[in-house]
Amino acid sequence: MDELIIIGALAAIVLPLTAGLLAWHVHFEPKWNGERWVKAAAALGLTLERRSGYIANHMVGAFGGVRVRVGIRTEVESGGVLDPRDRRVVHYTCVEAALARPLDAGLRLSPSGWLASAVGELVGLPDLQVGHAALDSSYTIVASDPEQARRLLTTPYVLEPLLALSSAAFRPYLSDSVVKLEARRKCLNADVPYCVIENAVELAGRLAAAREALGPSHLERVIGEVWGAVAAARGLTLDVERRVMSGRTEGVHVEVHAVQRETQPRRGSSCASIARSESASGSSGRTPSRASPSSSACRTSGSATRPSTRASS
Q1: Residue 9 lies inside a defined structural domain of this protein
Q2: Is the per-residue pLDDT at 123 higher than 80?
C-alpha cells in the first residue's frame, strides 16, 4: 500500500513537470525566442522577411550601403557511429553581405575540414592552393578561374581579415556574390550580430575594392565584346552589369543570361572556367528581376558559352 502511495506521489509530480517542459519547448520557448528576435531586428535597423515572429524568419536590410541578411538555421545531428539514436538540435547563426559586383572566379571558400575537401574531390574540384601557407591551411578553396581567385584572395587588404577570421567564432564562407559569416550558436540579441554584420560588410567592401582593381574579368570581356557584337547585329539590348542580353528578334523575345560556376576540369585542360549561358523568354518581354563585409570577434582561362534558348512568339 505504501508503495502505491509513493508511486502515486511521484506520478503527481513527474507528469505535470513533463507536461510543463513539453509545453515550454513546443509553444512558449519558440514564442519567447521569436519576441527576442523581433526586438533584435528592430535594434539592428533590419526588417523581417515575413510577419511571423519566429527565428526561422530572416532579417534583411541595408548596413553601410550593403545588402545584408541575418538568420538562424536549425539542424538535427546524430550521435554518430557510437550512438546513432542520440539526436540533438543544433543552431547556426549566419550573416550574409551581398557583393555589388560578382567576383567572376566561380569561387567557393569555406573553413578547412575533411567534409569540404571530400566534396571537392568527389565532384572533381580539388582544393586550390593560392600560395599563402596560412590561408591554404585555414580554408578549402574551389574556383573555376584559379588565377582570378588567387589574385583576389592574396590581395593584402583581403588576406588580412580572412586570416583573422579563420580562428574567430564566426568563420567566413565566400562565393562570387555573397560573404557569409557563420557560427554554431543561437544569437537572439542584437549585440553579437551587430559586430558580425560589421565584419561581413567590411570584408565585402574589401573584396569589392580588390575586384575593381583587377579590372574586367574574362567573363565580362566575353560579354562586352562577343555578346556586344551579337546584340548590335540582332538589335538586342545588352546589360553587361547584369550579364543579360534581351530583346525581340525574328518574331520572338529572347533573353540570354551568363553565369560563371565552378565546374569539373576537362581532361587535359589546366583550368575549369566556364561561362554558361542560359536563356529564357516570354511573349510579354519582361526582364527577370535581379537576384536578391573590420575583423574582430592562374592564368585567366578561356570560357565556353553554351546558349540554351527557349523562345516564344
Answers
A1: no
A2: no
